[in-house]
Amino acid sequence: MQLAGSKVAVVGGDAREREVIAALAASGAVVSAAARPPGEPGATWCATVGDALAGASALILPLPGVDVRARVHAPLVAEQFFINASDLERLLPGAPILVGTARPCLSEPAARLGHPLVELAEDDELAIYNSIPTAEGALQMAMERRLITIHDSRAVVLGLGRCGTTLARTLAALGSHVTVVARKPADRARAFSLGLAATDYPDAVPALAAADFIFNTVPSLVLTAKLLALTRPECLIIDLASAPGGTDFAAAERLGREAVLAPGLPGKVAPVTAGRALARVVLARLTAR
Ligand code: NAP
Asked: Structural domains in the chain?
């Protein structure tokens, strides 16, 4: 789609969407915003969701999307905003809806009304960009919670996907002794190519037992009570995986280990950078249509 002259609705979201609004406006789009604070540069503020959607060629929702009651994620405003079928009817025919993940209360009316959904939660490009503020946020937490440097620390990174790769590489760049735990031989080969130690889960015990920091990126239970019991009392566990994480948090508490689930770091630690990445991907997905 051609952005110049098209109306694009941005509904809800946090500081990241400010960057999206700015980028859309810079591309010549006419941006209408709802469920956001009034007065944001580049957007015409609308009091209702329906007004923002009226005649829009595309709808941008925040990555967390809407809850089970179709309430839009809108942390910058006190009022609650909902999005329903009668709002979606006001979009232009065939207008795409971009969102992190669409719940049925959004996807069902969208499908019925012929609005294609573009779900960004598993967008590889966006996930790789987001792995950068995620890794930096994890490092910030590690530095704030321990009295040792990352340099010369012993760190274990569980999983070598998008977050694990960026984090392991960044830890190593700061002088940490990093061991990657990955189940795929190719991922362990990748870790080796990055100059990192790598092991499979059955052989991870020595690295886990020696670790100052354990960072989990695996969205399945991998840090079991049995493995946690082998860790040092001083070890800090930062779990980056989506809730409920990959750590047995109850066991960690029982054992007296500090284990923290750390969701949503890009928007918390670097909303401008994360917003620029989001804007880049949103504009690319819109102009490709
Ligand atoms: P990813 O690229 O899919 O990486 C996931 C890693 O977990 C892969 O190495 C994968 O290995 C491994 N894995 C998955 N299931 C496994 C299992 N049962 N046993 C062992 N390994 C397993 O995902 P990502 O983009 O790095 O994101 C990782 C997690 O962090 C996700 O839950 C994501 O939602 C979350 N996240 C959090 C933040 C934050 O701010 N905290 C930011 C971004 C993402 P295989 O290839 O072998 O499956």
From this structure: 7-122 (3.40.50.720), 126-267 (3.40.50.720)
Mean pLDDT value across residues 73-88: 98
Residue among 217, 268, 278 to mutate when testing ligand 1 (max atoms within 8 A of CB): 217
Contact 49, 11 (CB under 8 A): yes
Nearest CA owner, ligand 1 atom 36: 241
Residue-wise pLDDT tens digits, 219-275: 999 999 999 999 999 999 999 999 999 999 999 999 999 999 999 999 999 999 999
Model-level pTM?
Answer: 0.94
DSSP state of 22: H
21 C-alpha to ligand 1 centroid (Å): 29
- 86, 88, 90, 96: CA torsion to nearest 10: -170
In whole angstroms, give the CA distance from residue 93 to residue 108: 16
Best mutation site among 119, 158, 183, 216 for ligand 1, i.e. most ligand atoms within 8 A of its Cβ?
183
